[in-house]
Amino acid sequence: MKFIMNTQDMIEGLNTVTRALSARPAKQILEGVLFSAKDGRVTMTCSDGSLVIEYMNASDISEEGETVLPGRMITELIRKMPSGSVMIQAEDGRSATIRCMKNRSTLAVMDPMEYPTVNRMIQGIKVKIPQKKLKDMISHVSFAIASDESRPILTGCLLEISRTEARLVALDGFRLALQKLFQPFELPEGMDMISAIIPGKVINELARILPDDDAFCTMMVEAGRVEFSFGNICLYSTLLSGEYIDYRRIIPSQFTVEALAEKSAVQDAIDRASLMAREGKIT
Questions:
Q1: How does the average pLDDT of the chain come out, rounded?
Q2: Is residue 107 domain-shared with residue 40, that is, in the same domain?
Q3: How many structural domains does the chain have?
Q4: Among 10, 146, 232, 266, which has the minimal tally of Cβ within 10 Å of its Cβ?
Q5: Binning pLDDT at 50, 70 and 90, where does residue 278 land?
Q6: Could you tell me if 102 and 130 lie in one domain?
């Protein structure tokens, strides 16, 4: 395998895919980034076993092939490279050479045959959501995702999409956050709603790598899995199984008292009051 890629493109790709690396991977191979050079483009892949992130970029490929480089090391190495083009060459299956201008480094590689196969989704329910709006929805509910593993279903976000709106719900047993997006959605004939419970880590990483623009993100749901694709990035993950809490029963349909206040004034008051908030007993 031998290819040349722009340094900034490689940094962007590595910064994106290494978000899927686990601090304590179940297998040593999952510490690495899978580089696949084929058909005029290079695909970088990272996985923690359940979450997979791919980044694809057009490159000058001299020799097609695959190799796995240590994720943390290659990322830090490329970050310290000067602007320009980076060449990566792996021939003997034991090491890879990284060249950038007058800089030359050699890293040990891992066997790409040991890397888990990415089961790409071919058939499934597809829905398109504006990237900026999806990112905004996540930012308004992610704080309420449960971190306590005693109730695994609450460590995820419930995403519901009907023909007229999308809802994102997070609930940790004390707080409930609900964000709605009103717009038409195209669903398969005979289907009124799709729902998926997306793991909290996945939804948070998605928000971090989603571009802040009005282009569309395509979501595909199939057999307990979900795929988000946008630009040259694909994110795959397993969904949480089980039944989410019926949040509609928690939200009151009627209120004894309703008040109308200026949003900015309320925010300022909360900011001031929070300065006095302390955990535990004040002495």
A1: 92
A2: yes
A3: 2
A4: 266
A5: low
A6: no
Please check whether residues 237 and 198 belong to one and the same domain.
Answer: yes
pLDDT of residue 239 exceeding 60, the answer is yes
Q: Is residue 54 part of a domain?
A: yes
At 175-201, the pLDDT tens digits run 999 999 999 999 988 889 999 999 999
- How does DSSP assign 201-257, residue by residue? HHHHHHHHHS-SSSPEEEEEEETTEEEEEETTEEEEEEPPPS----HHHHS-SS-S-
Written as one string, the DSSP assignment of 127-194 is EEEEHHHHHHHHHHHGGGS---TTSGGGGEEEEEEESSEEEEEEE-SS-EEEEEEES-----TT--EE
- 129 with 110, same domain: the answer is no
Residue 103, domain extent: 2-114
Say how far apart CA 273 and CA 282 lie, in whole Å: 15
- Tokens, residue 1: 């395998």
45: domain CATH number is 3.10.150.10
